[in-house]
Design brief:
Length: 95
């Protein structure tokens, strides 16, 4: 139970730090992304927090800056999805 409480507290601190670094519009966009792809939103938050710790962020991250950051991340992590359809032969197939 103490582990769970510590985990919840750490997540709350993390969310508070992110809220201080990003603008309200960017925060709203991040929350929408988190609904669809939580791992991507978490990764973007990690990048923002890391940049803030290193002193690379001097003002709040705007929505435009967040969009450009997302585009950069997408170009670096783009995956090719390949779909292969295997059809089983039917015994009584007329085609």
């Amino acid at each position: 139970m103490a582990k769970e409480e510590a985990k919840v507290e750490a997540e709350e601190r993390r969310q508070m730090m992110v809220a201080q670094i990003v603008s309200s519009e960017a925060r709203e966009r991040l929350s929408r992304i988190a609904l669809v792809k939580p791992e991507k939103a978490r990764g973007v938050e990690d990048v923002i927090l890391r940049a803030a710790r290193m002193g690379q962020i001097v003002q709040k991250v705007s929505e435009e800056k967040l969009i450009s950051l997302l585009e950069q991340i997408n170009t670096h992590t783009s995956k090719q999805t390949k779909v292969t359809i295997w059809r089983r032969p039917r015994v009584f197939d007329d085609d």
